[in-house]
Every structure is written in C-alpha cells, then in structure tokens.
Amino acid sequence: MATTTNTGLADIGLIGLAVMGENLVLNIESRGYTVAVYNRTTSRVDEFLAGRGKGKRIIGTHSPQELAAVLKRPRKVMMLVKAGQAVDDTIAAIVPYLEPGDILIDGGNTHFRDTERRLQALAARGIRYIGTGVSGGEEGALRGPSIMPGGDASAWPEVQPIFQAIAAKVRDTDGREVPCCDWVGPGGAGHFVKMVHNGIEYGDMQLIGESYHVLKEMLGLTAPELHQVYARWNQGVLDSYLIEITANIFQHVDAETGKPLVEVILDAAGQKGTGKWTVDAATDNSVPLTLIAEAVFARCLSALKEQRVQASQVLAGPSPRRVSEREEWIADVEMALYASKIISYAQGFALMKAQAQASGWDLNYGGIAMLWRGGCIIRSVFLSRIKEAFDRNPKLVNLVLDPYFAGELGRAQHGWRRVVSRAVQEGIPVPAMASALAYYDGYRSAWLPANLLQAQRDYFGAHTYERVDKPRGQFFHTNWTGQGGTTTSGSYTV
C-alpha cells in the first residue's frame, strides 16, 4: 500500500461521473468541500471540468493513483458505479493506493450481501468500508438526497459532516431542521434499507398506476381532469413526491401529436433489479411481501406487450362500464390507494425487522422513516406517522397494529373494498390493491385454512402437523391410507 506523507488537497474523492456522480460532486462542492474526481473514461473528467465543474473546488485526476495522492487523510473515496462486477473492479483499482484507516464508500444500488462480502475483505486490509444507499435521482443528488450509510461504524464520524451537509433537510416536530441522513447499522444494513425503500417505491408506483387505470376506465377522466384529482390528493393524506409528479405528468403535452404525453408512452415498464432483490429477501425471511411482489410481477407482465395485444383479441372478459357517482368514486379510489399504501409500508418494515433479527442489526425504524422524509423518491408526509408509531412502541411487530394505522385502515376500508370488487367485476387488473386487501384480511384472520394444507402435506409427504389441543412445537403424523407407516419427513418450518 502507498505510504506517502502528503497532507492532500481534497476532502473527498469520487469515482464515477455519470449523472448521479456528477450531480453529487456539485452538491458536495457547494457545501464548501473540495472534491477530487476520477472516471474510468478519463475524457469524461476533462469534459466535466470544462463544463459544469469549471471554476469550482474540483480536482480532476486521470488514474486511481493520482486520485489517492490528492486526498486528505484518512482518505475518503466514494464510488458511484454500476452495481456488480464494476464495483469489484473499481475496488481492485483503488485499493493498492489506500492505507489502513482509509475509507471506501459504495454509493450505488448494491445488493447488501455483496456489501458484506466486500466489507469483510477490506477490513482484513485495514480499509474501512461503508455501503451507502443514496436516493433521490439526479435532482436529489444535486439538491439533497436521502442517504442511508451502513458498514464499519468507526468510519461514520469521518464522513458524517459531509454526508449530513449534502443530504436533504426536513423540519422535525420541534421545528429543528434535520438532515435525511444518519447511521443505519453494521454490515449491509445501509444497502438493505435502501433496497427496501426501492421495493416500497415499486409498490407506490404500481398503486398509483392502478388508481389511474380505474379512474380512466370507469370515469373516463381526461388528462387535465386527472391532473386536478392527483393535485387535490396531494393536499391530503397522500401528500408525497410521487403523487406530486403524477399530477405534473398529466399536464405535459406531446409536441409531435398534441396529445397528453402520457398517452403516447408505451405501456411496457422497465426495472433495474432492486424490486426483485426485495422479493428475494422476503422469501429468504418468510415475510409475506405480497404487494411489492405483485408490483414487480406487474412490471414483468407489462413487458409482455406483444403477447398482451394478441391475448386481447382472444381472451374473453367484461368491458369496463362507467360509474355515475363521480366524486364518490374518486373518494373511494383515494381511500383504496391510501389503505394499500399503508399495507405496502407495513410489509416493507416487517421485512426490515426480519432481516435485522437474522443479521443481528439494531435498526431504528422510526429513524429510518425520517431518513425518507426528504430527498428520496418515496418521501411523503405519511412517513411522520410511521415515526410516531415506532415512538409509541419501539417493539411494534407490524405497522397495521399501531392504533393510528389500524384506525386509518378501518376508515378507508369501505372505499378500498368497493374499488377492488368493482374493478374485478369490470375486468380491470388491480393486482397491488387486491393483494394488499387480501393481506389485510389474512392478517386479521384468527383462523386460516392452512390446517387443510398441513393435512394434505402430511397425507402425501408425512410432513407432520401441529394440533390445536396440544402445545406449539409438538408434531404429529397420521397414517392416512393405512399403508404409510409411522415414518415422517421431519418437522416443518413456519
């Protein structure tokens, strides 16, 4: 490793000058820090310094060695490169020029298991590693994102001033301005929390899409009318960034056709993988993340555009009929969206609690909700209520059991059920809203038909079952056919 004694010039180095990296550099520099930058395609460094970075406290470098040489100790290097092999390649390129005690930060959308692997490998070399979730897109990176750091806690005091300076700010309950950035936890906790944020984002976007579908098909609302509906909703319990931009989207007109721009965009959604990772983590932890899973699969189904066009000519089903009670229906759809949103967050927080227990993390769930109050894509007024719920009961096992949210679900229930049932009758797919309602009804059911399922498993596979009249943890087997004998396959996992 390098052992030079220069004091350095830059407060932090950043590798990767794509949109997020470039805007984050400008954000850091605007807070009074000097930033050294490096990009694998070095011409990008020169272009940046001749353009948006001109005249600013930004030092361009053309190699990892040069980058390390201009950094103050302990060196702080942040990577904003594509998740996967690119991160490993970047680490391999910069580590030879770092010293024990230096800090390496991954600010990309990395899988938390990869972060834990890298943290352990770098710790053996004395390098402190931080896996940092950064949310807010290019605008957030420039003006103030939500930042979720985790990993080697000894590195937090070194990066805290920079991170909290550049993060989005919100007003606390006592009027203080607080940054949407705080230490999340050890290991891959920072990237895991960002992953769950993205999963909830999938859910929110799908739910908003379903509300749009229902309003469009059953009320025939035009784009200007839809703008008015979502703008009004953004003044109430649904006040959030995603509702705000949805209202704005309906105002945009396509320059070529004169139609609302949203109507000329192909209905085939893309995804980058964090939603799928969230669902994978849910299955690993046996957490019923049904709404977010449906949101992921809804994107997969939307991508089958050609097959859907063919199926529309073959498969029978009802054609949606218009409803006459315009304002009542709009209010019902608002409640269906609101109630489903509560379920989405409840499932997301349940997943974080399960992974925290499995990994030995001590997460502050109310604090995490506050990290998402500003800067990030799912920012909303709603998140303050989540903090209050965990303040009331830090050991709350599920958000829907909090008195406030239980009451809100009860208040929204009539409209929620009306929208889901009518959508089913009219052939309008609402997978996220329907799965949210099914989860709610399943969770509030003291009895479910899983007893029959266990009987079936024991019948064909001798998987055993528990009895209602015996203590939990005692397992039984029945020789259902008289030919199966007494041998069992062992107990089952709940």
Describe the structure using short key phrases:
494 residues, Single alpha-helices involved in coiled-coils or other helix-helix interfaces, oxidoreductase, EC 1.1.1.44, 3 domains, 6PGdom_BS, phosphogluconate dehydrogenase (decarboxylating) activity, alpha/beta, N-(1-d-carboxylethyl)-l-norvaline Dehydrogenase, domain 2, 19 helices, seven-stranded mixed β-sheet, two-stranded antiparallel ribbon, disordered N terminus, 51% helix, single chain, Rossmann fold
Topology:
Elements: E1 12-15, H1 19-30, E2 35-38, H2 43-50, E3 58-60, H3 64-69, E4 76-79, H4 85-94, E5 103-106, H5 112-123, E6 128-135, H6 137-143, E7 146-151, H7 156-166, E8 169-171, E9 177-179, H8 189-219, H9 223-233, H10 241-249, H11 274-284, H12 290-302, H13 305-312, H14 326-359, H15 365-371, H16 382-392, H17 403-426, H18 431-443, H19 450-461
Parallel strand pairs: 1-2, 1-4, 2-3, 4-5, 5-6
Antiparallel strand pairs: 6-7, 8-9
Q: What is the average of the pLDDT values? A: 93
Tell me the β content.
Answer: 5-15%
> Number of DSSP helices?
19
Shape descriptor reads globular
- Outline the biggest β-sheet: 7 strands, mixed
Number of domain units: 3
Q: What is the H/E string?
A: EHEHEHEHEHEHEHEEHHHHHHHHHHHH
Low-confidence stretches: 1-6
Q: State Rg.
A: 26 Å
Organism: Thermogemmata fonticola
Binding site for substrate: 109, 135-137, 197-198, 202, 272, 299, 457, 463
InterPro entries: 6-PGluconate_DH-like_C_sf, 6PGD_dom2, 6PGDH_C, 6PGDH_Gnd/GntZ, 6PGDH_NADP-bd, 6PGdom_BS, NAD(P)-bd_dom_sf, Pgluconate_DH
Function: Catalyzes the oxidative decarboxylation of 6-phosphogluconate to ribulose 5-phosphate and CO(2), with concomitant reduction of NADP to NADPH.
